[in-house]
Amino acid sequence: MSGAGGGRRWLAGWALVSIAAIVTAFFAGMFVRSPWEQASANAEADPLVTVAAAERDFTPPRPVVTGSLSAGREVILDLPAGQDTAVITQAFVKAGSSVSSGTALVEISGRPVLALDLPFGLYRSITPGDRGSDVIAVQKALSDLKLYPRGGIDGIYGTATSRAVEALYAAARVSPPTPDPERTARLRAAQDALRASSAKPGSSQLLKLARARDLAAAAAATPLPANEIVALRGNDLRLVNVPRVGTVLAGDPAPTLRLRGGTPSVTGRVSVLDAEAYADGTKVSISSLATDREPLRGTVIGRSEFRSDDPAGYDLRVEVSGSVTGWEDDAKVAMEPAGPEEAITALGVPLTALREDAEGSFVWVKVSDETVRRVGIEVGAERDGFVAVASGELATGDLVVVAGR
């Protein structure tokens, strides 16, 4: 009996110990993780990712606007060739020069060619005594140059007009046209006849001779040859090209002078986001998209109303300063604001750290591995994925949370 009872007690003890071991192992399994389990748990965890708040460059990039250059209206001057072989023997101006009424342009076969602001080209050489609309046009042009009285415009090429033509050539520093030889000969004959006369002073004979001399003198005054004048049709023109000395004015097409008038300008469209950088009066630099020539300078002089057609934005008009010699009309260009760039630095944080709630913008700042605090901020400019902190209690070096919370 005692043997049987001892066996049962041993079995009961063994069962209790086994159950205790199983329970202990169960609870140990709940609180103790294997390395594989820990690694799996770490992979699924959401740790705090922080970046230190630091001073950054928030200088705004200079927005570039593309557009087209208008070099101004083009004026083509046909050089008068005359009847004989005509060759350019001297150039008084060069490409890029300003040309206005009264400017001596070139010398052709020894004689100067002047520009004159006329509504049409001269269709004849004007000589003393001639009348017509061409004489009126010449008198108006001379009057505009303060060489002829406005009240004297009568359409008759007389002594006063002839003297104004002489003054025109003198102002251009070239020699005036030579009077017709036959008329000059008649003048000399009339002068000789008057000097040789024995008629009494005041007599009708002497008065007749004096009258003949005066008429001959008027007829022998300085003419205005048609092949020495080109019609300019406006002022404020710049010379684009000048044929080289030695160029023969023959062939098809014959050599010409090319000028451009009006103020050169650039037009382009600026986006809504960049419009503020191109306010009226802004100085801009203008570069060619096709060549590496020296950039032009200009000033924004106007901006249109908003245009909704693609690309949406505002049409800019920029007035170009200086010469555009060598630039093609309708050249494609790029513009950007000119002048030194003002650097802007500020405390910056990543955009991904920025939070928003009912109280405004804020960031989480790491205090410890398990603690963060809310710091309210006012935000400013944005650049390259960072935002400037305009105000708030955030300090340089604070660790702002970008992920994990």
Characterization of the model:
- The chain has 405 residues and is an alpha+beta fold.
- The protein is built from six helices and 22 strands.
- The protein has helices spanning 2-31, 35-44, 133-144, 159-171, 181-196, 204-219, and strands at 49-52, 54-57, 65-70, 73-78, 88-91, 98-99, 104-108, 111-116, 229-231, 237-241, 256-261, 265-270, 283-288, 296-303, 314-321, 332-337, 345-350, 355-357, 360-366, 372-383, 386-392, 399-403.
- Strands 2-17-21-20-19-18 form a six-stranded antiparallel β-sheet, with no helix packed on it. A six-stranded antiparallel β-barrel has the order 3-12-15-14-13-16. Strands 4-11-10-6 form a four-stranded antiparallel β-sheet, with no helix packed on it.
- The chain is rod-shaped and about 185 Å long.
- The chain starts with a helix and ends with a strand.
